[in-house]
Amino acid sequence: MLKLRSAITERTIVALAKNCLNLEVLDLDGCTGITTSCIDAFSGHKCLRFLILLRCSSDDLRGSAFESLAFGCPSLESIVLFMCDGAFELTRDVVLLNYLVCCEF
After folding, report:
1. Element (H, E) at 74
2. Residues 33-68 pLDDT 10s
3. Buried b (16+ CB within 10 A) or exposed e, 37-74
4. In the structure, how many helices (H) and strands (E) does the chain have?
């Protein structure tokens, strides 16, 4: 499990996805700067089970990234979104897959 707080760069998240191949839980509670590219970097990750995005701020999160993650990450059990600022729309497919544990927009 990896917990990161505060400001984090896209480069750091992409490096984590690329180099931490056994990462099962990524907790980004309160992180700013989470982008669609950050989420896309974990698509295809073999071990990630939980992605936690609580109180995250971003102007660049798209529903398509969560859809790619849900379909491309075979071990994924849930994506937790709660009180996330930003203009993104979750696609119907992701919601139907029940990957989203908690949503408040």
Report:
1. none
2. 788 888 899 998 999 998 888 777 666 777 777 788
3. ebbbbbbebeebebbbbeebebebbbbbbbbbbbeebe
4. 4, 4
